[in-house]
């Protein structure tokens, strides 16, 4: 299979709406973050959060140029195999595991695609073991699997990569706590205030409802939006299954600048 | 029923976890995979401005350093211009200074360092001068959503006293949690900071 072949973007029925718009009178700031859609800093069921959560109220800051801007990345920052986790660390063969494609769009809250933004991802191997010097889980390292990659979204916000499905693994929270299979995502957006790290889960995983990290999210719908459905239409017959994962970053008001609206 | 607005909802954050290095700084995880890597060195030999080292730790509620934390910084160049199309200020742009870097803390000491330049003052939308500062974003195991804070510079007393963001911080005694302390070491300029996640000296974090 040619991993670099473009997988056609699918029309998401949720996005079947008129072109997004916003009035040309804005301050260029991002929409207020709805923190009820995010886990609270202090979530005692996830024990590590107890000593690492601020206790004072966050100071709300109307966005200045420091928050509206953010780092810009380009194809020069990436290598040709960066979005192919099946090949980017292969030494003497393919990694063990279910071959999958993960694809989707990075959008903002208005439904606009976020173009040319950096998406980074990392994960355990098929046995649930990370290639990390601090991971001591007894499942073996896969000599042909590194477990990380990155991609730049295209003009429509679309990204994809190829990998193997990660395995679940135990961790020290309760004695018998297990992480559902997941892939970590890091996304930039266009401004530093959009910076986001999250995790993608897999449809049907029975560990999802009992995960102490996933259940830090108070809103059921917000939790469900982290679960990627199987996308048979995007699968490659006799090769790879596919999962679809859209990521939504904060929306942004237009910038009023010299009588000319920007950002629309 | 009014018409529906149909905005999408922002994707929920999740912790970066203890193995964040695999994806973002693989060399720290113990392997080499990408041809090009991001780092904690923001400067090139061509970068203009005063070379500085930013050095500090992130402490938990017991005062212990986080040894698995990852910081990113975003800053203007020495002229006070961000390398981003939304910054249309008259200050000079430097194409090869991205103004962004990331660093993982040392696995033993918890020390985080950046090699960069001291940013210039910027002017906000209301035309006010903002004191030179570096924007900081913090993720780690146990941090459910990235924490935003800033670092100001101890030798900018007058500019800090007039800074519109520092002046929002109440009570004023908390403002010092955002100021890095300048010193000289082996001929280099070092700014030291401590980010306290909890306690009487808890750092000011922003909802940006």
From TrEMBL, chain A:
Its EC number is 1.13.11.3. It is an enzyme of class 1 (oxidoreductase). This is Protocatechuate 3,4-dioxygenase subunit beta. NCBIfam families: protocat_beta (TIGR02422). Residues 1-49 are annotated as: Disordered. Keywords: Dioxygenase, Oxidoreductase. Residues 102-130 form the Intradiol ring-cleavage dioxygenases domain. It holds the Pfam family Dioxygenase_C. GO terms for molecular function: ferric iron binding; protocatechuate 3,4-dioxygenase activity. SUPFAM superfamilies: Aromatic compound dioxygenase (SSF49482). Belongs to the intradiol ring-cleavage dioxygenase family. One of its GO terms (biological process) is 3,4-dihydroxybenzoate catabolic process. It comes from the Bacteria. Gene3D superfamilies: Aromatic compound dioxygenase.
From TrEMBL, chain B:
PROSITE patterns: INTRADIOL_DIOXYGENAS. Signal peptide: none annotated. InterPro entries: Intradiol_dOase_C, Intradiol_dOase_core, Intradiol_RC_Dioxygenase, Protocat_dOase_a. Residues 54-82 form the Intradiol ring-cleavage dioxygenases domain. GO terms for molecular function: ferric iron binding; protocatechuate 3,4-dioxygenase activity. SUPFAM superfamilies: Aromatic compound dioxygenase. Keywords: Dioxygenase, Oxidoreductase. Gene3D superfamilies: Aromatic compound dioxygenase. Its EC number is 1.13.11.3. Belongs to the intradiol ring-cleavage dioxygenase family. PANTHER family: DIOXYGENASE, PUTATIVE (AFU_ORTHOLOGUE AFUA_2G02910)-RELATED, PROTOCATECHUATE 3,4-DIOXYGENASE ALPHA CHAIN. This is Protocatechuate 3,4-dioxygenase subunit alpha. It comes from Bradyrhizobium cajani.
